[in-house]
């Protein structure tokens, strides 16, 4: 059995073991110390996060947008709160982006998977205006607030473990404006 299937099965058992009343009464508060997860993130060529504290681990999933728009909006789900004490966090971090991408065309299955993993808490949204970009996927991205305009005490964002987002090899047969889905962890 594939490790992702085992983890999903174990997570399903964990969720089902909790009573529905108990889970409904729980107040959601994102944890504020995720530094243990920082060491579990996939290796990259980005500048290391020296002196920074990991505040959030978010799973970004493209929302369904109108095909005639050039704005891509992404829903950001808090996955760090659930992964913080999860013994399988290293493996989940490695497979959750591709799994979410593969389920993105089946919203009911995607919602079910997010719920089973405990990732149903929407933390926010972000969007890119793609009018001037080439559509090339950037698997690893480091964003720094150099002007002090970000809110919530966040001044550095890493995008890691990107799945999808690559432009097609040819645009033949595509509509003038089309969406290339991707998922990533932030």
UniProtKB/TrEMBL annotation:
<keyword id="KW-0732">Signal</keyword>
<dbReference type="InterPro" id="IPR021851">
    <property type="entry name" value="DUF3455"/>
</dbReference>
<protein>
    <recommendedName>
        <fullName>Glycoside hydrolase family 18 protein</fullName>
    </recommendedName>
</protein>
<feature type="signal peptide">
    <location>
        <begin position="1"/>
        <end position="17"/>
    </location>
</feature>
<dbReference type="Pfam" id="PF11937">
    <property type="entry name" value="DUF3455"/>
</dbReference>
